[in-house]
Amino acid sequence: MIGSVLEEHLRFLCNNHSIETTFQNGDGIKFKKADVLNSDLVKSGVYGVLEQKNVTAWLDLRNRAAHGKYEEYKIEQVNLMYQGVLNFLISIK
Questions:
Q1: How far is Cα 69 from Cα 5, in angstroms, rounded to an integer?
Q2: Secondary structure of residue 25 in the 3-state scheme
Q3: Residues 71-88 pLDDT 10s
Q4: 29-74 pLDDT tens trace
Q5: d(CA 45, CA 93)
């Protein structure tokens, strides 16, 4: 759930800063992946490289959880992710 909230916030930030969240390809309109949104937000100056690295780490943890790789992370990392994402949501608008 934390990862979903994070990704939704990235889309929210993009919309608030006039950054496209979709792209057109041969199959139609597609949503950009969270890591692309993260990169686009840094390029647009919404937040810095340090925040980008944090978001990248959180997205990686989210992907491991989503793919059932539970042995690859610890509950302490999830707790840190929760606190980090919460602070990110509050401070980056």
A1: 20
A2: strand
A3: 999 999 999 999 999 999
A4: 999 999 999 999 999 999 999 999 999 999 999 999 999 999 999 9
A5: 12
- pTM over the 0.90 mark: yes
SS3 92: coil
How far, rounded to the nearest angstrom, does the alpha carbon of residue 84 sit from its chain's CA centroid? 12
CB contact set of 18 (below 8 Å; sequence gap of 6+): none
Helix (H, G, I), strand (E, B) or coil at 44: coil
How far apart CA 86 and CA 83 sit, in angstroms, is 5
Q: For the chain, which residues make up each domain, given as ranges?
A: 2-91
Beta-carbon contacts of 31 under 8 Å, excluding residues fewer than 6 positions away, are 21, 22
